[in-house]
Every structure is written in structure tokens, then in C-alpha cells.
Amino acid sequence: MHLCRRTLIAVLAFAAAAAAGATAAGEPPGAAAAAPAAGATALPRIVVAFANEPQNGAGPAGSTGRRYACGAYGVSQRAVLTARRVAADYALREVASWPIRELAMHCVVYEITGGRAAGEVLAALARDPRVVLAQPLHEFHTLSAPADAPAYDDPLYDLQTNLPALGVPQAQRRAQGAGVRIALIDTAVDERHPDLAGRIVRSRDFAGGGHGAVGSQRHGTAMAGIIAAVANNGIGIVGIAPRAELEVYAACWQLEPDRDAAACNTFTLARALAAALESGAPLVNLSVAGPEDALLTALVATGIRRGVIFVGAREAGGGFPAAIPGVIGAAGSEAGVVPPGALAAPARHVLTLRPQGQYDFESGTSVAAAEITGVIALVMSAAHTRLSADALLALLRPAPTAVAAGGAGPGVVNAAAALARLDDSQRRTCTAARSGPGDAQGCPALAGRLLDGL
């Protein structure tokens, strides 16, 4: 088994390097698709997908075809040949490629040569029966406020008003996120930060090109801190769900040193989303936003059908990911008007983590998404059955008369109130079950339990 695994890894690494073409030696397969080299003339890039269905039975002698050695998922010979012929027919240069098991597709990132417009090429590809999907290589951005946003004089003020506004101190007496795994799709995270000790159980890099270096970990580290910074360790801050486990899937790269703004694209996000789905994490945080994207929408929709909960930063005008049906959208409560269907959370000057053991304030809709993810983790850890997105929304939506702290703006999600509603619902379910032949699963442990502080 060990020999088979080593051989498989070597074969896949060679195939990925060959597909990436211009990718520098030693870089991950997605590095070439992440961002053009500094000073290079950027050619339009597109994503084209081809059918990559499993092949049953043994193939003809000498054929390569699809291989599932040791359970691996590879690229069929037909998909590879089709991709090459399409590239030749349309004068495209392959940059990177990757098979997506969940969609039975082989995806290729191409550069358009010859000075042609992307719209012209995509229109032609859309009519080509060999092509399953053709779209631009979109770019997505984290939603941080400008770096020159004013800071409070007293940092404890923000620390003490943010968590109470969400009802977190009371909620943490009942639940702290234990047993919940959260997939964080963002930039890389500083796993050595003392306030994340023991919280990160898995980390994978899909941005490539050295984007996981300490200087490029600001946004991901900030989101990780908001969600799950360690509690009661005598240092720093407390995360909303301090006992939840984080799986980090780095798909974005920081745009400038010492700035929060970061970018991702269709290719890196698709690889990260597929990996998160394969991991089985029940909750996914996407503190990014951008245009509607067919490939990413298909992956998210696949996860939603499996019961995965997605939380996405919500921007005016919609787009990926919050506009996808079933995604729980998050918006800043300070804006005054929250988009329909979105949940509101504080998004200004929230104290969180910075790389290399530092702390600072973060603002933006990204913050609201991380906060909503943390609150959902609290509710999920307290539930004795798996909750759907609709069930979570019913628990989390504030009362129609609720307003933000200070009497203005939309109602902010309240974790303590959501847990109280959950306990009441579970208690009523258990009471009904006890009138039958036996107790419902989990009911004995719930009997007599009260939410402290409510």
C-alpha cells in the first residue's frame, strides 16, 4: 500500500507539472493559474471543462485511459486528447488543469493567444459539442475595509461590544463549537499564532507560488481568529466558537504587503471547494465575493445537496457566493440596510489576529461572514441532529422588531437567542417522543438542561 501510494503521488505530480506547462519547478499545480508573473503581459484566461466520466472495465491493450489505482481519480485519455484538440482548434495555450471528481469534469485554464477577445472565443466554445463548460477565469476578492479606516483609541471597547452584540458570552456557557469542523477557504493562515494552538487540523495550499508565506497570511489569519481563537489561554482574544476545528484551504493571495486585500480566481477556488467537499466538513466559510461563476456554483450546489452549510460574504448586487440559492449570506449591520435574506453581524473594527502573534482590528463584510460562521458552529455543536440551512436561518433570524445596538440599523444575529430557540425546539421534540414507545435519540441528555443566563 505504501509503495502504491508513493507511486501514485509521483505519477500525479508528474502529470500535474506537465499539464501546467509554464509552471515553475516546485510550485503547486495551481500556481500558474493563480496570477501572472510580475511585469508580464497578461493574456485573457478562460476556464474550459470537458467530460471526464469513469471508464468501466478493462481498456484495450496498451491504452492509458482513466486509472483508479489506490482509489485515485485521474484524467481520462479521451479528456486529455479532447482538451489538446480544442486548444489547437482555437489557438489556446494551456496554463493549468485539474480533474473534478464531484462534477465528473476535467477543467483546463487556457490563455487566449492572437489578440482575440475572450467573449468571441467563449461564444465559439459554447457552441462546440466537445465542451461542457466555458467561462472567464474570474477573480474574487476578500471584503476588507480600506487600510486607512480609523481605529478606536481603546481597543477593549471594540472587544467588549462586538461579542455581546452577537450574544456570544451567554451562548458560550451553553456551547463553544466542540465537534464542529469548519472549512475556511481564504488566504493561508499563520498556524503558529499562539491564539490558534490546536484549532487548525488540516491545511492545504491551492494558491501556490509562495502565497502561503507569513507576509501573505493576513486575511485568513484574521478570519480564523474571529471564528475560533482559543479561549481561556491567558492571552489575546476569544473566538466565537473557540473549540471548533478549522480546516484551512488557501485559495487566495495577498495583493500587497501589510494590506488585507487579497484575490482568488475560478481555478484556485474550485480546487479548494472540491477539497473541502471531499473532506466532509459540514460548514464552509467563504469571506470572498465576485461575479457569478458557473463552475463554482456547480460545486457549491453539489455541497448543498449533501447538506453542507455555506456562509458567504454578501455584497450589494449579489454574485458569488451569497447569491447561490442555499448559501447563507452575511452582511455588516452598520450599513443600515441588509440585503434580503442575509444575516447581519458587526463588521467594523472587530479585534482579531494578525500573523506572527499580533492583534489588530479588521473591518468589512468578510468579518460579518466569519462571525456568522462562528455563531452557526455554536448552534451546530448544540444540536443533536444535523440542521439544514433553512433550519439554521429560522433559528438565527432576529425578531422583526430587533435592531442593532444603539437603536439603529438592522437586527444583529444573537447566538444566545438562537440556542434558546434550539433548546426549546429540541425539548418539545423530546417531550413528544416520550409519549411514544421510547425516547428520541439525544433526548435524555437534553432533559432539564437550561441555557445559562437566559
SSE map:
Elements: H1 2-20, H2 31-34, E1 45-51, H3 77-90, E2 92-100, E3 105-112, H4 118-126, E4 133-136, E5 139-142, H5 155-165, H6 168-171, E6 181-186, E7 200-205, H7 218-228, E8 245-250, E9 253-254, E10 262-265, H8 266-279, E11 283-286, E12 288-289, H9 294-305, E13 309-313, E14 328-332, E15 343-345, E16 350-354, E17 358-362, H10 365-382, H11 389-396, H12 415-434, H13 443-446
Parallel strand pairs: 6-8, 6-11, 7-8, 11-13, 13-14, 14-15
Antiparallel strand pairs: 1-3, 1-4, 2-3, 5-10, 5-12, 9-10, 16-17
Helix pairs in contact: 7-10, 8-9, 10-12
Q: What this model shows, in words?
A:
With 454 residues, the chain is of the alpha/beta class. The protein has two domains: 2-33 and 43-56 and 64-137, 2-Layer Sandwich (Alpha-Beta Plaits); 141-417, Peptidase S8/S53 domain (Rossmann fold), CATH 3.40.50.200. The protein contains 13 helices and 17 strands. It has helices at residues 2-20, 31-34, 77-90, 118-126, 155-165, 168-171, 218-228, 266-279, 294-305, 365-382, 389-396, 415-434, 443-446, and strands at 45-51, 92-100, 105-112, 133-136, 139-142, 181-186, 200-205, 245-250, 253-254, 262-265, 283-286, 288-289, 309-313, 328-332, 343-345, 350-354, 358-362. The protein has a seven-stranded parallel sheet, sandwiched between helices. Helix 7 links the parallel strand 7 (200-205) and strand 8. Helix 7 (218-228) runs parallel beside helix 10, helix 8 runs parallel beside helix 9 and helix 10 (365-382) packs parallel to helix 12 (415-434). Mean pLDDT is 80; it is low at 1-29, 56-70, 149-158, 404-409 and 444-454.
